[in-house]
Amino acid sequence: MTNPDSQNNFLHDLLQLLSQEGSGAFSQILQLLLNKAMLLERSAVLEAKPYERTSARKGYANGFKSRSLHTPLGALCLNIPQVRGDIEFYPSALERYSRTDKALLLTMAEMYVQGVSTRKVDEVLSTLCGLRVSSSQVSRATAELEPQFDSWRNRPLGAQPYLVLDARFEKVRVDGSLRDCAVLVAIGISEDGRRSILGTSCALSEAEVHWRGFLESLQQRGLHSVRLIVSDNHQGLRAAIKARFGSVPHQRCQFHLIQNAMDHVPKLALRPKVLEEIRAILHAPNKLTAQALLRQMVETYSKSAPELAAWLESNVPESFTVFDLPPEHRVKMRTSNMIERVNQELKRRTRVIRVFPNIASLLRLITARLCEISDAWESGKIYLNMNPESQFLAA
Q1: Is the per-residue pLDDT at 96 higher than 60?
Q2: Bridge-based pairing state of the strands 195-203 and 228-231
Q3: Which residues make beta-bridge pairs with 65?
Q4: pLDDT of residue 393
Q5: 95, 48 Cβ separation under 8 angstroms
């Protein structure tokens, strides 16, 4: 049993230190408390106090090992109690082989995923608690968050009438060379009209195999009742959608469609006129009017710009699916702009790093930001009024 006088003396010393130095003594008090706690824990494990002779003893004290621990209060000098005999012991308050407090590690990780560069993380921690960190240390700290990121990426899904898909690229170092890594993102709009980010995937290819595997993983997590998919005209993506969601209508993003159309205009001076005519088609009040305007435009350019006319005839109808939606949904679902804004936010964070050391580190940072965006959407305002009487949703 612990000596009450010894305990009282220890408490008295702590209170005296606090009264004399105030908050400046916090790190020293923490150091004393940790050293005392580790000593008491060793006695409990050995079932004997220092120098105590007892038949219940399970091992023997074997001195101390000095070690520094970096914490938000500064560096602490700890005396780790050692044991010998047929027993293992390591203080539960510490993580074996780690010289940095877990709270500080998580602080480093949070700074990193919020877009703070490794250099700035090093400057901040050096100023606050005298800790210098390297990029590898920051990466290891960020890996501490991996279990919760993995849980988010694999959480169960449900009915999502609207699905929006897109990809972007980041530079990743692989086997000593720089490679383009595709970042796939899926956004869903649920039956109650709220947006959420359903998932993300990072791989060295945006090809059909990557997209198909990503879409399959969404289905395995319970994604169902998809009534419309909005995306750009990525060939690999279109093939994957056909394979995994063959019967679901597809809406080609009108914003990207217009950009693609400009590549087929034979003269720069003609672009403003073509742009205005395409916009008139896409903003038509209904599909029949849009189809009539398209036929008229194709006929107009059939002789002066036959390549443009052929492209318009075969591509523009792919963006007419939105006309089958309720009128109040068309404006928000005619493009993939909502995911483009997400990509812009991701770029704001990733451009600080520029080149990621591996795919796993890229996926961690992307996931961290997507978690925040999705949480804000799910707890915020309803994005669409999902009218249960709408013909599209009731189909």
Answers
A1: no
A2: unpaired
A3: 80
A4: 46
A5: no
Structure-model confidence comparison of residues 76 and 157, the more confident one: 157
Q: Which residues contact 104 (CB under 8 A, 6 or more apart)?
A: 70, 71, 72, 125, 129, 131
Say what the pLDDT of residue 117 is. Answer: 57
Confirm if 201 and 214 have CB atoms less than 8 A apart. Answer: yes
CB 72 within 8 A of CB 65: no
**Contact present, 384 and 332 (Cβ < 8 Å):** yes
Q: Provide the CB-side half-sphere exposure for 270 (13 A, CA).
A: 13
Q: Tell me which amino acid residue 324 is.
A: D
CB atoms within 10 A of CB 389: 7
Whether 194 contacts 259, CB under 8 Å: no
Q: Tokens in use for 260?
A: 């693609």
Q: For 334-383, what is each residue's pLDDT tens digit?
A: 999 999 999 998 888 787 777 887 888 788 888 888 988 999 899 889 99
Handedness of CA 281, 287, 292, 296 (dihedral sign): positive
In this prediction, residues 91-106 reach a mean pLDDT of 53
Burial of 64 (0-12, 13-18, 19+ CB in 10 A): middle
Rounded to whole angstroms, how far apart are CA atoms 7 and 9? 5
The rounded distance, in Å, linking the Cα atoms of 180 and 207 is 12
Quickly count: other Cβ atoms within 10 Å of residue 361's Cβ.
Answer: 20
The CA distances from residue 90 to 37, 64, 82, 109, 253, in Å, are 12, 12, 8, 26, 59
Host H or E run for residue 155: none
Dihedral angle of Cα 318, 323, 328, 329, to the nearest 10 degrees = -30
Distance (Å, whole) CA 229 – CA 245: 9
Point out which residues pair with 64 in neighbouring strands: 81
Q: What is the largest CA-CA distance in the chain?
A: 106
Task: Give the model confidence (pLDDT) of 271-328 as tens digits.
Answer: 999 999 999 999 999 999 999 999 999 999 999 999 999 999 999 999 999 999 998 8
- In sequence order, the 6+-apart residues with CB closer than 8 A to the CB of 196 are 187, 188, 190, 374, 377, 378
